[in-house]
UniProtKB/TrEMBL annotation:
Keyword Nucleotide-binding among record annotations: no
Localisation: Nucleus matrix
Protein keywords: Actin-binding
GO BP, one annotated term: actin filament depolymerization
GO cellular component: actin cytoskeleton; nuclear matrix
Name listed for the protein in its UniProt record: Cofilin
Organism: Tuber borchii
Pfam families cross-referenced by the UniProt entry: Cofilin_ADF
The family this protein is said to belong to: Belongs to the actin-binding proteins ADF family.
InterPro entries documented for this protein: ADF-H (IPR002108), ADF-H/Gelsolin-like_dom_sf (IPR029006), ADF/Cofilin (IPR017904)
Amino acid sequence: MPCGRTLSGKGIGLAKDVVETFEELKLGKKLACVVYDFSDDKRHIVVEKKVEKSAEKTPEEQYDEFIQGLPLNQCRYAIYDFTYDLPNGEGTRNKIVFFSWSPDDAPVRNKMLCASSKDSLRRSLTGVAAEIQGTDFAEIAYDVVLQRFAGKQTT
């Protein structure tokens, strides 16, 4: 597997397409999210899946689909192009959010690998508006993320 970069200290590398796929989400505006995982040998962070935006779904439906795709017992990183409406019909905004998903039921070794490589990965992805860490689905619910950007507004 070609490695674009090695992350500090642990020898964890980024697969070449990790940053390229992030840039595709950021600049292309066609992707809703990118989910990252560790390679089978745990030596690289790789793109697990890319999800395109859907015109047939509301932003909340698209986000809920993203959340439902996260594993119950394995850590993941994700980048999500979070879309929300401003109050009083003032328009729609998008913010790129970095997720560190480390569920309570994940193996300890998986959590340690996720924690030790997160900051270096995060720094490789420039243009992220916010970082959300989640250990259960309530911490990453649509309304929780919305609160970060739009205050007390709801959709």
